[in-house]
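Incident log, support desk, overnight shift.

02:14 A customer reports that sequence design results differ from what the structure should imply. Their input is reproduced verbatim below. On-call engineer (initials T.W.) acknowledged and began investigating.
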């Protein structure tokens, strides 16, 4: 028992002094890159509105201007009824990710062959507790050091006899910040 307690205390001291796996106090996000290409690290930002839970994750919350950034937005229907998400084309998963800037841009990194997206607008069903996820890789170009908002947007629409309603969609948006450092 005494030996187990000594090992436990030693591990706690090692963690406290080395800062291994240090996380941002506000977001709980690690400042280390993801362990694998498919994994986007822990919670970055979580919000809920109108029956939609949005979780935003990023490969890093602090990065250098030339480092590729992976961002993941996940939406989940928290109601007991089917919701309808408006899409802009056949390739739109229903949750869009953007990082607005006043100078430079975050350019999407293409994985594999380009997709042909011909459908102009569409609607996706989001059944109770169903999740839709969108992961994008972005390469900063001419981005200056500073703080930038990652924006996840979902357009909820209603359905009327199988046709899209003529009312404008309800826009649900959440933001989280990343910092570009020199």
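02:41 Re-run completed on a clean worker. Output:
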């Amino acid at each position: 028992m005494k030996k187990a307690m000594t090992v436990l205390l030693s591990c706690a001291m090692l963690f406290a002094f080395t800062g291994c796996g240090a996380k941002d106090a506000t977001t709980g996000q690690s400042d280390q890159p993801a362990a694998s290409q498919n994994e986007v690290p822990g919670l970055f930002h979580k919000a809920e509105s109108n029956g939609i839970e949005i979780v935003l994750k990023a490969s890093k919350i602090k990065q250098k201007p030339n480092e590729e950034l992976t961002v993941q937005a996940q939406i989940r229907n928290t109601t007991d009824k089917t919701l309808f998400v408006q899409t802009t084309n056949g390739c739109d998963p229903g949750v869009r990710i953007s990082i607005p800037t006043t100078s430079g841009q975050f350019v999407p990194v293409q994985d594999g062959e380009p997709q042909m997206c011909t459908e102009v607008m569409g609607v996706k069903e989001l059944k109770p507790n169903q999740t839709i996820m969108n992961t994008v890789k972005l390469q900063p170009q001419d981005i200056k050091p500073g703080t930038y908002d990652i924006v996840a947007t979902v357009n909820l629409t209603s359905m009327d006899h199988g046709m899209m309603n003529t009312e404008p969609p309800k826009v649900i948006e959440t933001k989280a910040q990343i910092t570009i450092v020199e």
